[in-house]
Design goal:
The structure holds two protein chains of two kinds.
Chain A (H helix, E strand, L loop, with lengths): L1 H16 L2 E8 L10 E4 L5 E3 L5 E6 L4 E7 L6 E6 L6 E4 L16 E5 L5 E3 L1 H6 L7 H5 L24 E5 L2 E3 L21 E7 L13 E7 L7 E7 L2 E10 L2 E11 L1 H6 L5 E18 L3 E20 L2 E25 L2 E18 L2 E21 L2 E20 L3 E8 L2 E11 L4 E12 L4 E13 L4 E12 L3 H4 L8 E14 L2 E18 L10 E18 L6 E15 L15 E11 L4 E10 L3 E2 L10 E2 L3 E13 L2 E8 L9 E4 L11 E4 L6 E11 L11
Parallel strand pairs in A: 1-7, 8-9, 10-13
Antiparallel strand pairs in A: 1-4, 2-3, 2-5, 5-6, 8-12, 10-11, 12-13, 14-15, 14-40, 15-16, 16-17, 17-18, 18-19, 19-20, 20-21, 21-22, 22-23, 22-24, 24-25, 25-26, 26-27, 27-28, 28-29, 29-30, 30-31, 31-32, 32-33, 33-36, 34-35, 36-37, 37-40, 38-39
Chain B lengths: L1 H33 L3 H15 L3 H15 L5 H21 L4 H17 L1 H22 L4 H17 L8 H13 L15 H5 L4
The chains are: A mainly beta, B mainly alpha.
Chain lengths: 717, 206
């Protein structure tokens, strides 16, 4: 026994000293040597770094089957299991890591902002310091190509699409009423405060199969996963007051915001074209709660918004004007969970719910409506390798709309509909190598109200043509149910359809970005009716169609001039459509052929000031002059606006902010309203539809209270 | 009994061997690092980390090498891949040692590296993080000289930017010097760097 043990002991010792030499060469697939790669036997100290010519050699006392690991920055880790005695003269080719910087990006049709995404065009700071945007995400996106300046509306008009063709999502879940309630010709704003979001994806076409029910565009907002610190933010603005507070404890955090806005004092100082009876007043509150699990993150977002105003709307047919009043109450709740399931599976699931209530008074007419909507979604993603990822999921939309209109001389009218739909989607991301990538997706939707089932394919391909530049192609079919104003009277229509074809060129080089995108979009089965407005007795059909084609160019430069950055966007748009009550195909009033935005920001260090200017130009917008025979045959004068803002940092936590829109006072005209009947000379008289005021200015003071003295509200401006 | 003794001594020998291998490996890695062979040193630290399985120190140093290296290079692609790699090493380190002030300080360094590399892109998001991490490190170890010294340097940078007097943070440096002297060194290879940066940071106090 004793001798046996000693023998084993000696043998083990001998094993410890037995040496094997492991050698080889590490190269790229093309054969170019990789110096500095880390080569080692898993679980041991034995290893080496490759030399300048890619060769390596080291000795080991390990025996038998072992795993050799080769790792290097920006390459995929390589493993090889075999007997150590055979690990000689190895020729190891490392594959490039397709997730590293410098890889091709699938980006046709999308603009990413923030999020440190590779294709980012705007940082969160850009969004909030853009003059004219006044802290509204939507305002900042209007300086990107592909959008049309429709200043009296405030929503996004993308590539010849009207504002109803764009949808907004928060953390993957639909926001049903993303814009604040407003009156005709008074621009709206996004309901949510920008500092809740870490990143945004704005698709101007060809978006992912995960999203549907939008013909033109989706705007995807992602909330912050974890706030940096506890703090209290106070804001005093010439038109309102705000307070925010963030608390963190253990794996939880809670952020609360409240804002009160009242335009009455402002409108008493600055004369308005609109005769306000009760100026715009709103109270809004938002809260985000987050809980970090071991393998996932739960977020709960809730927002409540109350808006109230009354005004006399000018009308050429009614000399004394039309009395219009609105009270809106909006509740939005969004709960989401994202987590790892192990084995490279990821789960994203959640639900959103919205209740929107409007109490509208138009002269003698009272309209009360209630819109309840919900979205439930589950999505799974499996990462098979860095090169192949597959995601699939299902979602359910529930919509219930009720409206009651009472007209004193006529009586009551009721309308309601339930718009429910179910969808399933799947998408594959395939990276052939660092230069070539493809995304293939498919989405199937069934709508129970209109009783249709549609399958839409989506595909995009990206190829890197040189170190700094790439080209992409994208194609997709998109379906959308007709809008609420039609659905409440008719539910036998087809879904509206669009198809997008996109060719994109991207050049990125050290703080300079050039993006050029040419597209063609066809519209089919658009809803039509035969009255001035959709009504109970109108005849409806789905025979509308149209097209949009154009070129978008974006250039950004952060490097050439110190402390100065600028970007410029130009869009050319050629579009015609026959929809709603159009007698023929025509370019709609919201579409402008040429759109230009130039945004510049200068950080004046000595003045501790960020000075920002935005110039917007849009060519004339089509309108119909009943004195001529042409439908939408005339054009307004061009739109011009120069906006400026100045943020002065009194100290790290106190900021003074001044912003003026349309500094030069351009007299802009959006459209004309003509009289219903000709005057004595046989001419139809008209009035111009113009902004409620040529200029708008804001003075604000922002104060952050936190332990961290370096924080401020620059991101809230 | 004898058998047990022999067996025990056998295990003792192997464990002494592995301890010796660890010390030899770490020693070799520091030597490579000292000789400016940064990538080789980081590679060796990574190998030791992988072999040790429950020791945070090798990953900590592998991360430190990548972070420090980015201060001397300009290529965006390389900086981002090094910082990503460093973050992965720190994440590994954190799984072996929770609430470790040294790892938290290194993470503050990592976030500082992002701000230094591209202030316009990362200044807003990462500055708050740096501050938060230094405060967290000070809560875990109120007398950690690196937390105090580098937090002071970070705050001095901010003060200069805002046109304020960075001298307000000079007493912190004095505190750091004191704690450097008091710093115990029981664990082999435990972080003890930073002392020779005092003079550079104190330049702000003149």
């Amino acid at each position: 026994m004793k001798s046996l043990l000693i023998t084993i002991f000696l043998l083990s010792a001998a094993f410890l000293n037995a040496q094997n030499t492991i050698s080889g060469v590490v190269t790229e697939p093309s054969g170019v040597p990789i110096p500095g790669a880390n080569i080692y036997l898993e679980g041991t100290y034995d290893g080496a770094s490759s030399a300048d010519d890619g060769t390596f050699s080291f000795t080991t006392t390990e025996t038998g089957g072992q795993t050799l690991v080769v790792s290097f920055l920006s390459f995929e880790t390589f493993t090889l299991s075999m007997d150590v005695t055979e690990m000689k003269g190895l020729k190891i080719k490392l594959k490039e890591d397709v997730n590293s910087l410098g890889s091709v990006i699938l980006n046709a049709g999308t603009f990413s902002a923030g999020d440190n995404s590779k294709a980012s065009v705007l940082t969160p700071l850009d969004i909030v310091t853009t003059a004219g945007a006044a802290g509204d995400y939507i305002g900042a996106f209007q300086t990107l190509p592909g959008t049309s300046t429709v200043a009296e509306d405030g929503r996004l008009f993308v590539r010849g699409g009207d504002a109803n063709e764009a949808n907004v999502y928060i953390d993957g879940l639909r926001v049903f009423q993303p814009f604040a309630a407003t009156a005709n010709n008074i621009p709206t704003r996004g309901r949510f405060s920008p500092f809740l979001f870490k990143g945004t994806n704005f698709s101007t076409g060809g978006y992912s199969a995960e999203y549907g029910d939008a013909l033109s565009s989706v705007l995807l907002l992602n909330t912050i996963d974890e706030p940096e610190q506890e703090k209290t933010d106070l804001s005093f603005i010439s038109v309102g007051l705000g307070i925010g507070n963030t608390q963190k404890w253990k794996n939880n955090s809670l952020s609360i915001n409240a804002f009160y806005l009242n335009l009455k004092p402002y409108q008493e100082i600055i004369s308005q074209r609109v005769d306000w009876i009760k100026p715009f007043e709103s109270l809004s509150g938002e809260a985000v709660y987050r809980h970090q699990f071991d393998n996932g993150l739960f977020k709960l977002y809730g927002g409540l918004n109350y808006t109230d105003f009354e005004l006399i709307q000018e009308d050429i047919n009614v000399p004394e004007g039309i009395n219009f009043g609105l009270k809106n109450r909006n509740l939005y709740i969004n709960a989401s969970y994202k987590g790892e399931l192990g084995n490279d599976w990821r789960l994203a699931t959640g639900a959103s719910f919205a209740n929107d209530h409007n109490d509208i008074k138009i002269e003698e007419t009272n309209v009360d409506n209630d819109d309840n909507a919900a979205h439930l979604k589950i999505k799974l993603r499996k990462r098979f390798s860095n090169r192949f990822k597959l995601s699939f999921g299902a979602e359910q939309f529930l919509g219930n709309f009720k409206e009651e209109a009472s007209i004193i001389s006529f009586g009551n009218f009721q309308s309601s509909f339930k718009n429910n739909s179910t969808a399933a989607f799947s998408e594959a991301n395939i990276f052939f190598n660092k230069k070539l990538a493809m995304q293939l997706g498919i989405r199937a939707t069934h709508n129970t109200l209109l009783d249709f089932t549609k399958v839409s394919p989506r595909a995009s391909l990206a190829y890197k043509i040189a170190e700094k530049s790439q080209v992409s192609l994208a194609y997709g079919d998109f379906y959308q149910a007709p809008q609420q104003d039609i659905l409440k009277y008719n539910s036998s229509l087809d879904p509206e359809k669009s198809s997008h074809y996109i060719l994109n060129y991207l050049y990125q080089n050290n703080g300079r970005t050039l993006r050029a995108e040419a597209y063609y979009k066809s519209y089919d089965r658009l809803a039509k009716f035969d009255t001035a407005m959709p009504e109970f007795g109108s005849n409806y059909n789905s025979s509308g169609d149209g097209y949009a084609a154009g070129l978008d160019v974006y250039w950004r430069d952060n490097k050439s001039i110190k402390n100065f950055e600028y970007w410029t966007s130009y869009s050319y748009l050629d579009t015609e459509r026959d929809y709603r009550n159009y007698p023929e195909r025509a370019t709609p009033n919201f579409a402008t052929s040429h759109n230009l935005s130039v945004v510049g920001k200068y950080w004046a260090k000595d003045w501790k000031s960020l000075i920002s200017a935005t110039y917007n130009f849009a060519s004339g917008r089509p309108y119909t002059d009943p004195n001529t025979a042409n439908f939408l045959g005339e054009k307004t004068r061009t739109f011009n606006s120069l906006n400026m803002s100045w943020a002065y940092l009194i100290s790290q936590q106190k900021i003074l902010f001044v912003s003026v829109s349309n500094v030069l006072g351009f007299d802009n005209v959006f459209n004309y309203q003509y009289a219903n009947t000709p005057n004595v000379n046989g001419n139809f008289a008209r009035r111009a539809i113009r902004p409620t005021a040529d200029r708008f200015f804001i003075i604000g003071f922002f104060w952050t209270i936190s332990d961290n003295k370096t924080d401020n509200q620059l991101d809230n401006l | 009994m004898r058998t047990i003794i022999i067996l025990l001594s056998f295990f003792a020998i192997t464990s002494v061997n592995s301890q010796a291998a660890y010390e030899k490996g770490m020693g070799k890695a520091f030597e490579l690092w000292g000789n400016q062979k940064n990538d080789e040193a980081a590679n060796l630290f990574e190998r030791i980390g992988k072999a040790e399985k429950d020791n945070w120190l090798p990953y900590y140093y592998a991360a430190q090498i990548h972070i420090v290296t980015t201060f001397g290079i300009k290529d965006a692609e390389e900086i981002e891949s090094r910082l990503t790699k460093a973050q992965n090493y720190l994440n590994e380190a954190k799984t072996f040692s929770k609430d470790n002030a040294e790892i938290v300080i290194m993470e503050a360094m990592l976030n500082t590296a992002y701000v230094v590399y591209d202030g316009a892109k990362y200044g807003m998001t990462h500055s708050g993080k740096v501050e938060e991490l230094y405060q967290k490190a000070k809560i875990i170890e109120p007398e950690n000289p690196r937390a105090i010294l580098y937090h002071a340097e970070w705050q001095m940078g901010a003060a200069k930017f805002w046109g304020k007097d960075p001298k307000a943070f000079c007493p912190e440096i004095e505190k750091a010097i004191l704690y450097f002297e008091k710093e115990p060194s029981n664990v082999p290879f435990y972080p003890d760097w930073g002392k020779n940066q005092i003079a550079r940071i104190q330049e702000n106090c003149k």
